[in-house]
Amino acid sequence: MTATEQIDAVDIGPLFGTDATARNACDAALWGALRRTGSALITGFPGADKVDARARTGLEVFDLPETQLRAITTALIEPDNPNLYRAYWPCTPERLLQNDFFDVGPDVHEAAPDLPDIDVLTELTLWPDPEPRTGWSDTVRAHYNHLNEVAQAMIRSIGRSAGFGEDVIRARFDGTNSTLRFLNYRDGAANSQPGPDGVILSGGRHTDVSGLSLLWQGSPGLQAEGQDGVWRDIPKLPNAISIHVGDVMTRLTDGAVPGTPHRVLACKGPRRSVGFFLEPRLSALVTPANLPDDQTTIRDTYAWQLLTAFAKLPLWRGRIRDPEEAFADR
Q: Can you state the percent helix, strand and coil of the chain, rounding each to 5?
């Protein structure tokens, strides 16, 4: 179905205060929005006035000369480069999302299970040198830390509403493994296949593998699909971010919180956006949060899940092995 309305806007300021009544009301508003439309536009959080400026600064990475972009491109495309995962990825025709993107991750190595090819997932950010402008990386790091703080508060809120103890959810996401992604849809970017409702897309329907995604858009085009099958526009408002539940949170809550399908409409001219993907620690369990730990194995960790997902992608063939097969060969 086509979009007929916009998603709800929720002021999440009370999640950062000390008023329990206000926090509970905010939990209910956020939960209701996610249950009704699959997404919500969040406002009112501390530091919200900095979001637009920091996002636009980070997006300047795409204005670098081609020679500099090649130096930070994934080694899957530029074999002499050091990073396979945390890098710049130019658009390729077969991808569901027709964009270039640049990933920013942690500045320290994340502790991880002892698995074959795990070093790919523990890469540090490959920063451009020289920077797009003086202080650029400092601004990007500040944006990463800010969005991580916001996402952490919201994932705990969703966990409370789903009936799980705050500490249970917090323990899954207290690492440094999350991803800040800058995205660039070039002029004319579109998938070869239209959506089932006939619309032309530059980003096809998908859910994210993360626990929670925060998405900022420089211009409209993003839509979220509710459980009723209706696609709703996500408006572009100053210093506002939309939130989308990822597959990990669906698993942790045993399906109580469905993942948010979303897509991007093709539009005239270029389009830029920013995503922050709150991810569990690599060693964290991604089984239902009420499952006793003694009933889990290394196969239930987020690292195992990511390696399994990567191994299935044609682009990673020969670089990452299926952990089930690789682990058995030890």
A: 35, 20, 45
| Cβ-Cβ contacts under 8 Å for 205 (sequence gap 6 or more) | 195, 225, 261, 262, 263
Using alpha carbons only, what angle is made at residue 282 by residues 70 and 251, rounded to the nearest 5 degrees?
110
**212-254 pLDDT, tens per residue?**
999 999 999 999 999 889 999 999 999 999 999 999 999 888 8
Decide: 45 and 12 in contact? Cβ < 8 Å.
Answer: yes
- Phi/psi at 160 (nearest 5 deg)? -60, -45
Cβ atoms of residues 179 and 103 within 8 Å: yes
Write the CB contacts of 93 (distance below 8 Å, at least 6 apart in sequence): 192
Q: Kindly report, residue by residue over 128-153, the tens digit of the pLDDT.
A: 999 999 999 999 999 999 999 999 99
> Are residues 121 and 112 in contact, defined by beta-carbon separation less than 8 angstroms?
yes
DSSP structural state of residue 57: H
Task: Name the phi and psi angles at 188, rounded to 5.
Answer: 85, 5
Q: What does pTM read for this prediction?
A: 0.94
* CATH numbers and ranges of domains, the chain: 9-284+302-328 (2.60.120.330)
Residue located via tokens 């998405």: 215
